[in-house]
Request: fold
Amino acid sequence: MKKLWQEFVADMNSWRHGWFVYIERHLLHLGVRIEARKDVVVDILIARRGSYQWPFLHLSLVILIIVGAASAPIVANAYPGNTNQLDTYTPPSAVLASLDLSQSVQTDFSDKPRDHVYIYAVKEGETLSTIAQSFGISVDTLKWANDLKSDSLSVGKELQIPPVTGIVHKVREGETIYSIAKKYRAEAQNIVNWPFNDFADQETFALNVGQTLIVPDGIMPEAAPAVAPRMTFFATGTPASGKLLWPTSGIITQYPTGYHMAFDIADSSAPGIAAANSGTVVLVEYLKWGYGQHVMIDHGNGLVTLYGHMQAIYVKPGDRVARGQIIGKMGSTGRSTGTHLHFETRINGTPVNPAQYFK
Reply:
């Protein structure tokens, strides 16, 4: 009897071990497959930039509701609580009601870029100037979006508030981002950089007739000539009094903004690109969308620089590079309309204004 029991225990242990090995092997295989396909999904999301945010948010909300509804009975049973505690419980609404509402309340608008034209009703005492300042756009942008000929406003009048300074344009047949950019004296690349502009073709930037297109920093054709934007020419590796070297030569076609925290530096001669400081190459990608062919260099203390849209790359992951070393050649790969460099700085993975490193 004892021997039979020992054989049974041994068989159970073998059976348990076999299942353990089987499940472990399949989980490992599943993990490898997910890891292999993860980058593809991320690349697609980057290519589309802000296009999928609303479906993603809606799907996430539905999943949270389903999980909450399914887990509510379990949580209620696990933590039944005590109804007597309700006598001493102070609901959040009671705390809120105790606030002194006689004090002035100021509305703070989010720094995050708005993704659409916002309808706003004029309040008493407001002017075009105060409304424009509240939403971080120019007065001319408000006038152009609402076809206003004067500065006078009536209380309750509804205004269309563009998401950024510039033009809100409805695409007509035969128009391209290049013809629209020329019409409004803007850069085609700036239209592409606006993350909520969508295109019929992500590689050619083809447009759909009737779609709304945001033209950042665009100017109405009949408007008075605007002051030319600051455009600076630097030689490759020009030293700065700050921490980094200027990475290439060319004209700055876009400065860092809330939705594009980077310098765009254009030069049709496609010059070399220099490492802004010594460090280790941590990423080299050859993509057809997003940043295109790009390199990321870790400089230590959480600082990483990114060099996008290159046509040639001369380094590989793990390489140690020196300050000013040429790591590639300017190009127009990925989400790009012309030869330029997208230069970005990140601290602990978060894009920050690179201008601070050249002061």
